[in-house]
Specification:
The complex is a heterodimer. Helices cover 36% and strands 14% of the residues of chain A. Chain A is built from 12 helices and 9 strands. Chain B is α/β, with parallel strands linked by helices. Helices cover 30% and strands 23% of the residues of chain B. Chain B is built from 14 helices and 18 strands. The chains are: A alpha/beta, B alpha/beta. The interface between A and B is medium-sized, with 27 and 22 residues.
């Protein structure tokens, strides 16, 4: 849990890496790479980072003099912004690079890009790419820490960490809860990271989706699989909604938005099947009226804006853990 | 006239005749002049004598699916480098896929390739003619002229024809010339953006899957059309249990349909992809271990006729990419025999059965005189040590491309000498 003593100090702000044992991983590429104690360690570090962003001078310069490159091959306002703010609050020099296309035909390959950036001697590169495994490939070609900010439909580890932190702060625990994830399971990296993380912390995980949006073998990754949303939500402590890409509701995968919303959109009636104190989450960006009723998205059970706040704390914690002052032991 | 060559004290393994016995083979003028089993042999005057020391003497391998880079992508592979790799791997003949630039869809190109290969390659290069112009799957090529120029079969290589009516037409027309249609079965709409076998492992990796039905549905169509048109049909490479069932059922009614398999689908499975290792990104994809076991059984019972390398040289530029964006394919000429012998060493398949699928069966399907140790057959022979242990190392690869899916693999079985047309083209040096 949070290091309360450090949090009270103003001159040595909360959550400095010295308060925690050294983090042994060089990169953060996937939740699958993390052991249970490492997940808990990162959550504790993130918890301790929360006060930094709530104080007037949001500065905790443990990364002063370090260079962070945000390399986004896919556009992302919130994740890129979150990593940028996290790096800046830690005092790092942050550079944002948006690359429109990664395709070979348009020039430089991913490996070439990695070599070029590596020559600029960054301390950490935060990468988002449309292809699964691309961030790991890049990590093999550079000499600095690499953070996966989402690779295709593979993983999005900081999202799973911020989701877990949000849950823990609301429920006081994670282990033993029942968490339902609902929506486009097949194409979501958020789902894979969350199932791995929650599974490692002994959560009862459920996925809920029409069969078209359930990937092969999902029954081996989630505790339970549902195609009926009311059944799936029964007794849940947490309801996580996923974004449905509009292009999937064009008759090729899902017949229409209104049919999807009717059966899989989260409204008050469906939410009533979950526990009365269930919290509602969404990784964003939301499609109000597609996967979620605006009244629920902005309602009392929603913790969606808090997820965004926890995102900054988690990313500060990850950056701080991977780039300890004085370098790795 | 070259000197006669006598190979004595060998374990002669010839699948065509079912022979597995001690003996000697006499070669004259590029042909097998005599085969002596379990008996004394006379040494002709002036003959060169090779004491095989008990090594296995088998027909040289015939590889039915090899891609080269010549013409058009010589930096990946030339006929010469492919020939060197083949000779080292015990492959004395290979069918060259028409997927080159330009595409081999014209008799003049077949003629060029045969001449070019004679001049530069250590082994026999057998060009396959494209079924459709530019491999576009739309208009048929000149089958008769391709055959006259020397094309041994018709195939669209790694491309799969989607139109059933076009397939019916080309099969019917190929039957006119007695040519075998070799077809890669892949339904484009079901394959979609898939990059590996569909299943739990693809889901974990976040990669789009290719269902087995992308293979079985077009295969079922092809087998029905082959029966309708009475054509000789060879499913280029199958990979799953469902395809084996279809082949077994079709073979009961129709003797002129056959099936091949890539050594990759016999030796590897989808788990070898590990964390996005692109040398295991193949089309046909690696399937599950259950599928692999079903393929071994199909090889054992004869439902699968041939084993090939699916040798497909790709450079690092197109392989060192995120998995979904990397090119398909792996090289395999130099590891084909040893990888296939794994099935023998594991006790899964008899030696004669494994060798038959790489010698006499391809010869029968393609109508070749080679692939057997018999009087009058071409002296395309290999001497190999069944148990010789070695480790595959990228540095020792003769192919111009290094995309082997067996890097670091420990294999048993090594070609000690390769003979093409009576001439030794490769000897193993320790």
């Amino acid at each position: 849990m949070a290091q309360a003593s450090a949090a009270t100090a103003t001159t040595t702000p909360a959550g400095s890496s010295g308060d925690f044992p050294p983090f042994k991983q060089r990169h953060l590429l996937s939740i699958a790479d993390l052991k249970q104690h490492e997940i808990i360690d990162l959550l504790d570090r993130a918890d301790a980072m929360v006060p930094v962003s709530r104080q007037e001078r949001k500065s905790h310069p443990t990364l002063a003099g370090k260079t962070q490159i945000n390399l986004f091959f896919e556009p992302s306002t919130r994740t890129q912004g979150s990593f940028e703010i996290a790096g800046k609050r830690l005092g790092a020099l942050v550079m944002n690079m948006s690359v429109k296309s990664s395709s070979v035909s348009k020039g430089e390959t991913l490996v070439d890009t990695a070599a070029t950036l590596n020559a600029m001697r960054p301390d950490v590169i935060v990468v988002r790419h449309s292809a699964a495994g691309a961030v790991e490939l890049l990590s093999q070609k550079v000499g600095c820490a690499v953070i996966n900010a989402g690779d295709g439909a593979h993983e999005h580890p900081t999202q799973a960490l911020l989701d877990a932190l949000t849950i823990r702060r609301h429920k006081g625990r994670i282990s033993g809860l029942t968490v339902a994830i609902c929506g486009d399971i097949a194409n979501s990296r958020v789902v894979r990271s969350n199932l791995l993380l929650l599974g490692a912390l002994n959560v009862r995980t459920r996925v809920i989706a029409p069969r078209n949006l359930l990937p092969a073998g999902i029954e081996h990754l989630a505790t339970e699989v549902f195609t009926d949303m009311r059944e799936g939500l029964k007794g849940c402590d947490v309801v996580m909604m996923l974004r449905l890409q509009h292009e999937r509701a064009n008759g090729r995968m899902i017949p229409s938005v209104r049919e999807y919303y009717h059966f899989y959109g989260l409204d008050a009636e469906k939410l009533s099947f979950a526990k009365p104190d269930a919290i509602v989450m969404h990784p964003g960006p939301m499609n109000r009226g597609v996967e979620i009723d605006p009244a629920i998205a902005d309602g009392v059970q929603s913790v969606i804006t808090e997820q965004v706040e926890m995102g900054v704390a988690v990313r500060m914690a990850v950056l701080d853990a991977l780039l300890p002052a004085g370098g790795h032991a | 006239m070259t000197r006669p060559l006598l190979i004595e004290n060998a374990r002669i393994v010839d699948p065509a005749s079912g022979t597995d016995a001690r003996g000697a083979v006499l070669v004259e003028n590029g042909l097998i002049f005599d085969v002596a089993l379990n008996g004394p042999v006379g040494v002709p005057d002036g003959a060169e004598v090779i004491n095989a020391g008990g090594l296995i003497l088998a027909p040289g391998l015939i590889d039915m699916r090899v891609f080269t880079g010549e013409p058009g992508k010589e930096y990946r592979e030339t006929l010469q480098s492919a020939g060197d790799a083949a000779a080292a791997g015990g492959v004395t003949s290979f069918v060259m896929m028409p997927d080159t630039a330009p595409v081999v869809d014209d008799g003049a190109l077949v003629d060029f390739l045969i001449r070019r290969a004679k001049a530069t390659s250590k082994v026999n290069v057998l060009p396959a003619g494209a079924i459709t112009k530019g491999l576009a799957g739309l208009e048929m090529t000149e089958f008769g002229l391709l055959q006259e120029a020397g094309a041994v079969c018709l195939t669209d290589g790694r491309h799969s024809i989607q139109s059933a009516s076009l397939l019916r037409t080309v099969m019917s027309y190929a039957a006119n010339y007695g040519m075998t249609i070799v077809h890669h079965v892949s339904d484009h709409s079901l394959t979609g953006e898939g990059v590996m076998n569909e299943g739990l492992f693809a889901t974990i990796l976040g990669l789009k899957g290719i269902p087995r039905e992308a293979e079985t549905i077009p295969l079922a169509r092809d087998l029905q059309l082959a029966a309708l048109t009475s054509t000789k049909y060879h499913a280029a490479q199958i990979s799953c249990a469902g395809s084996v069932e279809l082949m077994a059922a079709a073979k009961k009614r129709n003797k002129s349909v056959t099936a091949g398999i890539s050594i990759n689908n016999l030796a590897l499975n989808e788990n070898d992809i590990g964390r996005y290792r692109t040398f295991f990104k193949l089309s046909t994809p690696l399937r599950s271990e259950d599928d692999r076991q079903a393929m071994i059984e199909a090889l054992r019972n004869g439902t699968i006729d041939t084993i090939h390398s699916d040798h497909d040289p790709q450079d690092t530029e197109v392989k060192r990419q995120p998995f979904a964006e990397a090119s398909d394919g792996a090289i395999g000429l130099e590891t084909l025999l040893a990888a296939a012998l794994r099935l023998v060493h594991s006790g899964d398949v008899e030696l004669l059965t494994v060798l038959r699928a790489m010698t006499s069966r391809p010869a029968e399907i393609l109508g070749l005189a080679s692939g057997r140790i018999a009087k009058g057959a071409p002296a395309d022979l290999i001497l190999f040590d069944l148990d010789y242990p070695w480790q595959v190392s990228e540095r020792e690869i003769r192919s111009r491309s290094r995309n082997t899916s067996f890097e670091g693999a420990r294999l048993a079985g090594k070609v000690m000498r390769t003979i093409v047309g009576g001439q030794t083209v490769h000897t193993h040096e320790d």
